[in-house]
Amino acid sequence: MDFKQRLIHWYSDNKRKLPWRSTKNPYFIWLSEIILQQTQVKQGLPYYEAFIKQYPTIFDLANASEQDVLKLWQGLGYYSRARNLHSTAKHIAFDLDGKFPNNYKDLLKLKGVGDYTASAIASIAFNQVAAVVDGNVYRVLSRFFGIDTPINSTAGIKEFKTLASSLIDKEQPATFNQAIMEFGATQCKPKNPYCIVCPFNDRCVALLKNLVNELPVKLKKTKVTTKYFNFLVFIDNDKNTFLEKRIGKGIWQNLYQFPLIESEKSLKVDEFQKLNTEDTILECTDFEYSLYNETDYVHKLSHQHLHTKFWIIEVDQLPNSSIPISEVKKYPVPILIGKFIDAFNFQTT
């Protein structure tokens, strides 16, 4: 029995029952693949179900506001995925009359769709022979064949794509692709894989040479930077607060946040007093403030760690651009701020 036969046999006995595996609808498959980028199934499944319920067709998604889409996405992170999802939905609905491109080459032209996603949709929805290569596939192939070429190098990306393309079952590409991804996700895990019961344990080079923990090889990541965020949570006598929209191209684009001051280090109360915050405090001169969390909340992103404090600023009156605190949860916010909002009881302030 060769590699693909063993793999598909394993998949038929061990695959998880997931909603996007019972359909050929390219909208559902595309949606699932976008959600599962950088996200495990356990976390992504509730979001998939929520999106399908709220936006059962691509036209429903296309007609939604970006703010509503971002709000539904809240907590998944990597928000550019949600913005690209919405943009692509509008393109397909309005420019392509709701018809998904039915081949790898044209799928690749869609915003937010790269090689892996185009291959997945092409094979699963349209039965095209297009091999997928994601983190799970890199891990399976590097261990089984004993390949130490870095998976995030130009040479590695090309080598593993070529290898996956040579292995794919041309008669059932959708099944093969889903099988190898499932195998990497549930059997050949990053840590403590189940080698004892692995169907490839008699041929896996990594296992035979005791290299399981060394493969796959990945080049060192970009240096992680540390930033210090101070969010100003305004509350006035009329139970209003203030949110601002992040419009830059950095993290959290188009999400909302409390007014932000960045500092060079984590601030103590006496150090916060020294800041010139007149502009940020919206020209309020009569106010009281307190520190909500003495210990920084540390929010880890791929390339930066955010050490964050929330400062409660009580004022008599905020300008007309303020919003009732009862409406705060309607706005899409980063998970860091969402957790604060859930923990801080505005209504009793």
Mind explaining what this structure looks like?
It is a single chain. By secondary structure, this protein is α+β, with helices and mostly antiparallel strands. It folds into two domains: 3-208, Endonuclease III, domain 1 (Orthogonal Bundle); 225-348, Alpha-Beta Complex (Nucleoside Triphosphate Pyrophosphohydrolase), CATH 3.90.79. The protein contains 14 helices and nine strands. The protein has helices at 3-14, 26-35, 41-54, 58-62, 66-73, 80-95, 104-107, 115-126, 135-145, 154-167, 173-186, 205-208, 269-273, 335-343, and strands at 225-235, 240-241, 244-245, 256-257, 260-263, 287-291, 297-300, 304-315, 323-324. Strand 7 and strand 8 form a beta hairpin. Helix 8 packs across helix 11 (173-186) and helix 9 (135-145) packs across helix 11 (173-186). The longest helix is centred in the N-terminal third of the chain and has 16 residues, at 80-95. The mean pLDDT is 92.
**Any idea what the CATH superfamily of the largest domain is called?**
Hypothetical protein, domain 2
Identify low-pLDDT runs. none
Q: Helix and strand succession?
A: HHHHHHHHHHHHEEEEEHEEEEH
- Compute the number of strand runs: 9
Strand percentage: 5-15%
Helix content, binned percent: 25-40%
**What's the CATH architecture name of the largest domain?**
Orthogonal Bundle
Q: Please give the largest β-sheet.
A: 5 strands, mixed
Structural class: alpha+beta
